[in-house]
Amino acid sequence: MIDLPVIQPETAAPARPRKPDWLRVKLPVGEEYAAVRRLVDEHKLHTICESGNCPNMGECWGAGTATFMILGNICTRSCSFCAVATGRPTEYDLDEPRRVAEAIALMKVKHAVITSVNRDELKDRGASVWRDTVVLTKQLSPGTTIETLIPDVKANWDALDVMISGGQEVISHNIETVGSLYRLVRPQAKYDRSLEQIRRTKLAGHRTKSGIMLGLGEKPDELYQAMDDLVANGLDILTLGQYLQPTKRHLDVAEFITPDQFAHYREEGLRRGLKYVESGPLVRSSYHAERHVNVPV
């Protein structure tokens, strides 16, 4: 009998985790969705719903709401999780606040969310456009409440003061991930600097909000530490959602967090002193944002 050599199978690359059923969403359809689509196009507006590939776009636009993105759709940062284009921004339109305010009035939304790309090349980080957008929106739609999701100002605290001075009800700044993953996820940002931005916003008397993506490789204890850090720096509201890889060029999903885990993290956040925690696989910064206006300051 001849002994045949044993051929070892090639080592296969680790399989990517398969997207679970609880992350499947309906395609955007309906008359309300179409109406918002027309308004966004007619007024030449940018929305993070589109630029960020948000899974809730169909639900939110179908309800006649959208999150507007000011200061263009090209970001000076290159965060490894984000679908927004990176490069040298070409837009700086001082008439943009009027167009955004008019669109919000035409949509008759009760609660508007406004965000922006990072504009590190601007001396004031775009702060005057931020303030004017909020002020004009309040003038044209006095019954509309506003949340502003503002970028990292790179410790330009004068710019921060202008950004938060328009009269908005909620001011959000996302830390996005735990401290140990910052170099990987937000290479041009600093964990402590974002905490300081939240602290200064709270000291100015505002309702504060932040968001963290889960499934990037963070450990539960690291998330709990981030919660404690946020509470220590005056955070009121926290959103927790599943990271979803926007393209193959972005970070892989390390883990899909189950709905039960999200529910546990919500209870843990409340136990640690947060006033409100929105936690679930499809939660994004502006998801159910209208509920956050009533959180005590």
Please specify the SSE layout and strand pairing.
Elements: H1 31-42, E1 46-47, H2 48-51, H3 57-62, E2 67-70, E3 74-75, E4 85-86, H4 96-107, E5 111-116, H5 127-140, E6 145-149, H6 157-163, E7 170-172, H7 182-185, H8 191-203, E8 208-214, H9 220-232, E9 237-242, H10 259-271, E10 276-279
Helix pairs in contact: 4-5, 5-6
Provide the descriptors you would attach to this structure in a database record.
single chain; 10 helices; 297 residues; 8-stranded mixed β-sheet; alpha/beta
- Helix/strand order, N-terminal first: HEHHEEEHEHEHEHHEHEHE
Q: How many beta-strand segments?
A: 10
Which geometry do the CA atoms define?
globular
> How large is the radius of gyration?
21 Å
Low-confidence stretches: none
Average pLDDT works out at 86
**Structural class category:** alpha/beta
What summary fits the major beta sheet? 8 strands, mixed
Number of helical elements? 10
**Which strand-content bin applies to the residues?**
5-15%
- N-to-C CA distance: 83 Å
Question: Helix content range of the residues, please?
Answer: 25-40%
* Strand arrangement across the biggest beta sheet: 1-2-5-6-7-8-9-10
Cofactor: [4Fe-4S] cluster
Binding site for [4Fe-4S] cluster 2: 75, 79, 82
Family: Belongs to the radical SAM superfamily. Lipoyl synthase family.
Pathway: Protein modification; protein lipoylation via endogenous pathway; protein N(6)-(lipoyl)lysine from octanoyl-[acyl-carrier-protein]: step 2/2
